[in-house]
Design a protein that fits this description.
alpha/beta, 7 strands, 34% helix
Length: 289
């Protein structure tokens, strides 16, 4: 049975200005990209076929296209505005296709690797795993990567600066019930493959409903600091969909609160007066069974 995928209205609206999103969202550290490709056994593999799943405006796609391996990249994206922004870049070796994690519309076993950049949390479910399993060649891998600023991190992670905690409090105030990396529910899709009940395990074995990806998944964090002007910090903060959808007085009030927080005397600045923004790039990977 074909799974019906529907992009959340909040995501559709929050990412409606794809050009601004592309301008202000960060790229990924070179070290993180190299490590992820290594974990997926794609590093230095010539002409490997890679699916960039929910590729958005192509922040990660660009990095794959620029590499010396000469990857053949298929970018799959359900958001029309983001897809159009990526298509305008005319990246070498990249084909862009409308689709989603539950229905990619390509043949079985096409991919040497599947990567979801800044996206897996949106569709972390059994249907997606089945489709990723279907398009991957046997034994090859699925990778995930996120840039996570301190202000968009899980509640239990400590913010590096008071202003980042203020921004984090704002994010939590405007929770919209949709899954984000910071909720850490994206892991459950993998963990739910294994049922501890003996009767269920026997039933799954008899019906061939076995795990599709290896456990435990691999994970690694790479810390970073970047320096941005106050306005650039706001612009980057505004790429979060739940902030981007704010309007009128609410939006103006949030911006005032954010800009005031940056004035805290503890805020670290460089010689240009730019603010130190802290975060991590989180890598995760697993192999098709």
């Amino acid at each position: 049975m074909t799974t019906t995928f529907k992009l959340a209205p909040e995501a559709q609206t929050g990412f409606s200005n794809a050009a601004l999103y592309d301008q202000h969202r960060p790229s990924y550290p070179a070290e993180a990209v190299t490590k992820l490709l290594s974990y997926l056994n794609l590093l230095n593999v010539r002409d490997a076929k890679i699916i960039d799943l929910a590729c958005g405006t192509g922040k990660f796609t660009e990095l794959l296209a620029d590499r010396e391996e000469g990857f053949e990249v298929l970018g799959i994206e359900p958001h029309e505005g983001m897809r159009e922004t990526l298509e305008k870049k005319s990246l070498k070796g990249v084909t862009i296709k409308e689709g989603n994690a539950a229905e990619m519309g390509i043949e079985d076993g096409w991919a040497d690797g599947v990567i979801a950049a800044q996206a897996w949390h949106w569709f972390a479910n059994e249907e997606s795993l089945k489709e990723i399993h279907r398009v991957l060649k046997p034994g090859l891998s699925f990778g995930m990567i996120w840039n996570i600023e301190d202000y968009n991190a899980p509640q239990t992670w400590t913010a590096s600066a008071p202003w980042e905690q203020t921004f984090k409090d704002i994010v939590l105030r405007f929770e919209d019930g949709l899954p984000r990396f910071r909720h850490m529910k994206w892991k459950q899709a993998f963990e739910s493959q294994v049922d501890s009940t003996p009767l269920q395990a026997l039933k799954d074995t008899l019906t061939h409903n076995l795990p599709k990806f290896s456990l435990p998944i691999g994970e690694e964090d790479i810390q970073w600091t970047v320096y941005l002007s106050d306005e650039q910090v706001w612009d980057r903060f505004n790429t979060l969909s739940q902030i981007a959808v704010l309007e009128g007085e609410v939006r103006e009030g949030v911006k005032r609160e954010a800009m005031e927080a940056l004035k805290n005397e503890s805020t670290i600045r460089n010689q240009k007066g730019e603010v130190a923004v802290h975060g991590v790039t989180h890598l995760a990977w697993t192999s098709r069974i």
